[in-house]
Design brief:
disordered N terminus; 7-stranded antiparallel beta sheet
Amino acid sequence: MNAEPAHSLVLTTDYRVPDPTRVWPLLQRRRDGLAALGAHHVFFYTSTTDPERVLVTIALETREPVAELLRSRAFFDWFDAVGVEDLPAVFAGELIERFDFVADPAEAPGIVVAGFMVVDDAPSFRSYVRRTRDLFLKAGIRRVRIFEAFDDPCEMMFLHELSDANSVQ
């Protein structure tokens, strides 16, 4: 009998903390705990416009249902340790589109713009993104990641990486 394969999951949280400089060291100290949950990548971003706002994305390989994973004491301990006062919303989904326009995939990230949206027709939206991918490059976007929510295939999260803050304008 074959075991059910693990699926790839992305959890993203956007929240305020009194001191964002405490978040990354805390994530590093909890590396083993995150790995035990199935985390293989952790991305941490600070806001360029709000000094107390952070975005954390964790990529996991897990057989654990999303709801059970989010009930893990590890997440609540992490939020408590960095000073989160209001439990943030969590986007849980999977990567559906990925474009890299940089020569070196290991190149350090620039400015990341994150967005969450609901589309009327997810397959048409995905097709449109694929057809217009060159427009991202022309707009100065270095990397594009688009994710689909597990609980609603019309809910999307996108991460667009720009070279620098001047690219945003």
